[in-house]
Amino acid sequence: MLDANILIRAVLGQRVRRILEAHAGTTSFFVPETAYAEAEEHLTALTVKRGGDPEKAMAALKAMAALATIVTMTSMVSSKPKRSRDSAGAIRRIGRY
Length: 97
Known about the structure:
Elements: H1 4-12, H2 15-23, E1 30-32, H3 33-49, H4 54-66, E2 69-71, H5 73-76, H6 87-94
Parallel strand pairs: 1-2
C-alpha cells in the first residue's frame, strides 16, 4: 500500500522511484484513491518550491500510479473474511466479528 508521501518521494526523488520500478514486475502495489488525490494536491506546490516543472511532476505521478492499482474505499472494504474453525475461539477472545 503506497501513501501520498511515498508517491511524492517517487516523483521528486530517485531512490523510491527506482525501488518501485525494480519491483513492479513481481510485486503488487496499491494506492488508495485518497492518497493519490493528496499527492496530486500537494505535488505542484512542492515541485515549484524545489524549482521544478509542475507539468513534468504530474506526468511522473501518473507514471508512478500506473505501476500500482488505484483502490477506492469501497473496494478496500470486502465482505467478512472466512475463518477456519480453529480461529473462532481466538476471534471471540479478542472481540472481533
